[in-house]
């Protein structure tokens, strides 16, 4: 486990990427969500590893990308914030009929014990070319992620539905950087 690797997770459309951008604007290194990067790449090349076409292929790619992200971040000094990550990918893989979350992750706790979770926030949720599922599906995904975090022994810190600046301050204070 690395206290330098801080995971932001939770409901799709809950403000994770906006929060990540605010943290980056404050000078912190960030790692973008694997799923969004994969969808963008697959759409550009008319690939099939898309959650609405082949969830298992998508989730396998997300696991590999998240593992690669963790490896690449090893050389970064200080805190690095991750938008989703290996846990989210393992949850998706398990729910697509792949191995269990524990089989995918093994004994590794890749992230800091405290994980920041954005709750479902209907007013923020919006579909786009890369997010085609509806709000109810996003809420179900959120529930699966929370259960996995609990089972894996992570401490969930739910971020309130407040401005992105207040969320960023809360995260940084919890991380001991404010």
TrEMBL record:
Domain of life from the UniProt record: Bacteria
Annotated NadR/Ttd14 AAA domain residues: 6-167
Record InterPro entries: NadR/Ttd14_AAA_dom, P-loop_NTPase
Recorded coiled-coil stretches: none
Name recorded for this polypeptide: AAA family ATPase
Organism: Roseinatronobacter alkalisoli
């Amino acid at each position: 486990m690395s206290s330098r690797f801080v995971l932001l997770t939770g409901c799709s459309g809950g403000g994770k990427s906006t929060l990540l951008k605010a943290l980056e604007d404050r000078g912190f290194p960030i790692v973008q969500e694997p799923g969004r990067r994969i969808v963008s790449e697959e759409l550009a090349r008319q690939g099939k590893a898309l959650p609405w076409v082949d969830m298992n292929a998508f989730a396998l790619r997300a696991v590999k990308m998240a593992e690669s992200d963790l490896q690449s971040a090893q050389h970064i000094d200080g805190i690095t914030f991750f938008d989703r990550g290996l846990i989210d990918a393992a949850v998706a893989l398990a729910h697509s009929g792949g191995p269990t979350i524990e089989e995918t992750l093994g004994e590794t706790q890749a992230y800091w014990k405290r994980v920041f979770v954005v709750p479902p926030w209907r007013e923020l949720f919006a579909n786009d070319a890369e997010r085609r599922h509806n709000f109810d599906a996003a809420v179900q995904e959120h529930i699966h992620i929370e259960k996995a975090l609990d089972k894996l022994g992570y401490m969930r810190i739910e971020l309130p539905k407040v401005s992105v600046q207040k969320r960023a301050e809360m995260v940084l204070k919890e991380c001991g950087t404010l």
